[in-house]
Design a protein that fits this description.
Elements: H1 2-22, H2 27-53, E1 72-74, H3 79-85, E2 91-96, H4 101-110, H5 114-120, E3 124-129, H6 135-143, E4 151-155, E5 167-168, H7 173-183
Parallel strand pairs: 1-3, 2-3
Antiparallel strand pairs: 2-4, 4-5
Helix pairs in contact: 1-2, 5-7
């Protein structure tokens, strides 16, 4: 794209002296004018063709992790692709930060347990790392109306969030296992 725009700009710069030289009656000035206009036309043609044929950059398709019971960390930009890739399976989205003591409790005392991982295995587990509060992360928190961390959001197989199932703050592993079974998350 940069090359195309450079060629178009070069064409515009070359055509102006060519048009000015056309006003002269001297033979060498007319030849120079014709060559400049011909060069400008060629540059413009190639630049426009490159511009029209330019393809937008493609982003690689999002690939879900095949590790059941473990969270896959994604960026806010990857969230729509991750949600699309998880269609047909319920999703548990965690907002996490390494500076958040309650997040660390979830990580070390709840999600690390094999019985919790087994209970979560039917779900797609996605994690937004909010350790560095970038503008994209803050915008995502704002769009979900989340004032703090940790936050766990539940989406059904069609990708619709169930706000009544949001979990904010801490919960013990036994309480969380009971909640998973009570809410029948795998059948959402």
């Amino acid at each position: 794209m940069k090359t195309a725009l450079t060629l178009i700009a070069l064409a515009l710069l070359a055509v102006l002296p060519g048009l000015w030289l056309l006003r002269s009656s001297a033979r060498h000035a007319l030849v120079s004018a014709c060559l400049l206009i011909l060069f400008a036309t060629g540059s413009a043609y190639i630049g426009i063709r490159l511009l029209l044929e330019a393809k937008p950059p493609t982003t690689p398709a999002f690939v879900l992790s095949n590790k059941p019971g473990l969270f896959q960390t994604i960026t806010p930009e990857q969230l729509p692709s991750a949600m699309a890739a998880s269609r047909g399976r319920p999703v548990l989205l965690e907002f996490y930060a390494d500076w958040c003591s309650s997040c660390i409790v979830w990580k070390e005392q709840v999600f690390s347990r094999s019985d919790v991982q087994a209970a979560l295995s039917p779900l797609v587990l996605l994690q937004i790392d909010a350790s560095t509060m970038s503008p994209d992360v803050q915008a995502l928190l704002d769009s979900h109306q989340l004032a703090g961390l940790p936050a766990l959001l539940v989406y059904d197989k069609q990708g619709q969030e169930h706000p009544q199932l949001r979990l904010l703050g801490e919960m013990s592993a036994p309480e969380f296992l009971a909640w998973i079974h009570d809410q029948q998350l795998s059948s959402l």
